[in-house]
Amino acid sequence: MKRVGMLILMGLCLSLSGCALAAVWLDGCGSPDADLVVVNDSRQEVWSIELDYGDETCWVRNAQDHALLKPGQTYGLELEGARATVVLSDRNGGELGRKTVDFSGERLYVTLEEDKTISVTEEMPDV
Question: Could you tell me the pTM of the whole model?
Answer without folding.
Answer: 0.74
